[in-house]
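Researcher: We're reviewing a set of sequences before deciding which ones to prioritize for further study. For each one, I'd like a predicted 3D structure that I can look through quickly. This is Crossover junction endodeoxyribonuclease RuvC. If possible, include the structure in token form so it fits the rest of the review sheet.
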Amino acid sequence: MRVMGIDPGLRNLGWGLIEVRGSRLTHIANGILHSEGEDLAMRLMSLHAQLSRVFATHAPEAAAVEQTFVNKDAVATLKLGQARGIALLVPAQAGIRVGEYAPNAVKKTVVGVGHAQKRQVDHMVRLHLPGIAIAGPDAADALAVAICHAHHMQSAGRLAAALARAQ
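Model: Here's the predicted structure for Crossover junction endodeoxyribonuclease RuvC, in token form for your review sheet.
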């Protein structure tokens, strides 16, 4: 199964695609989309078009997006939320249900510590996906979201199988 992770951002939207076969994770692709345009509407449209092309090119079967954390700047948080809307919309338009994970949950799953630093996340992504060339910090975060979603899907699958055996 191909799993797309998305780290939403208005200026830079990170994405990462992995393949999951059993417990084995393989890197497929990753990148950073840069919004273009003078105003917010044009920047959002630019991100939508670019992310739609990524989905059309790579055909993921599952997707996950990092949830927005609220910071001190309410305007920046609102704009990030709008970019996050694009990150949720594009997979939904492709008919894919989207998992959502808090930043601390992603870090806890990938690093083992909920308050890990960005360099620790990058390091652990490289351990999970040996030999990978990462496009930048936003792409590393997106790959971490994909890894987190893969682990949660595996856990849910094991739980469903155990419940089926118990009946």
